[in-house]
Prior knowledge:
Layout (H helix, E strand, L loop, with lengths): L12 H10 L5 H12 L13 H10 L6 E7 L5 E6 L5 E8 L12 E4 L3 E3 L8 H4 L2 E4 L2 H15 L5 E4 L9 H12 L11 E5 L3 H9 L5 E5 L5 H7 L2 H4 L2 H13 L6 E6 L7 H14 L2 E6 L13 H13 L4 E3 L13 H8 L2
Parallel strand pairs: 4-7, 7-8, 8-9, 9-10, 10-11, 11-12
Antiparallel strand pairs: 1-2, 2-3, 3-4, 5-6
Amino acid sequence: MANDLPVITGITESELSNFLKEHGQSSFRQKQILDWVWRKRVQTFDEMTNLSPALRSLLAENFRFYQPEVIELTGLKGGTRKFLTKMEDGNLVESVIIPAARAEDGEQSSRITLCVSSQVGCAFGCKFCASGLLGLTRNLTTAEMIGQILSAEKIANHRIDNLVFMGMGEPLANGKNLFPALDIITAHMGLGIGARHITISTSGFVPGIKQLIDYPKQIQFAISLHGASNKVRNEIMPVNTKWPLEELVPALQEWVDAGKQKPTLEYILIKDVNDSPKDCQDLISIARKLNAKVNLIPYNTVKGLQWTRPSEEHCKQFCKTINYARIQVTMRYEKGHDINAACGQLRLRKEQGI
Ligand code: SF4
């Protein structure tokens, strides 16, 4: 069945090279094919007019073009847009297009960031997250992750400059599809996005962190910490009961010792859960040990969950305390607060008819 054929945009250079070798084709053909797929962005093998008809047929018998359908696009002023994609099996996946913030001098940068999903739902069940509420349905394929970027470029009519794997799912739990996707995204004859413009985020999946350390490119790394003691993390992030801070922090230390990019600790501020002075001191101590940056994100309310956002004054005080400790810290209000942009919320709303 044609639907079982691999999607050409999910094939890495080395997979294509092996395929061509196996079929006795010269390596020069690889460059031509990649040029049609990634530079000229054709949608059929017939359009690859500098290939012989026999090679075009060979490709069509072994691969296919497929781009999942965008079924909903939601936006708000400021330019953030969220879109929902329907996969071939009917599963829904969401992605968020985020334009660069306006600089202090009033100049608007044209750079665009895309927040990508890596799984349909998520098995990790963080208590504050809409994606975790429905559990894991399945991993996204390499082509489905790449497909989100191609759709975003079409919607924005602009190339994507930065990628953050912070949408639905735990990306490192889908390493078998994530790492080939990273190869395609960073390839010169692929999407050509520099590794330093890509951030992988994890909730604390320690085996995946070890794999990421071995990945040779200089990817940015963010850890969804959200609690700086086992007590808090156990309460809101079940992953911590399997890989507590005694295992997570040394794994992060390995990342730092391997000379990788400075990690970022993501910390959603939730009222009366992780916003006490002790929580702040615990966070400072981990950030100091890892020489990490801290990103504070006041909580986005999720319908059906009991958590709330601390007052603005309280968030500012928490931020100031970290700053006084000479830790690099920023406070980031989610731009999508009023378009259900906390991860998984758009899909959840659609599936539950909210
Ligand atoms: S925050 Fe991330 S890891 Fe946790 S449940 Fe949501 S998608 Fe999964």
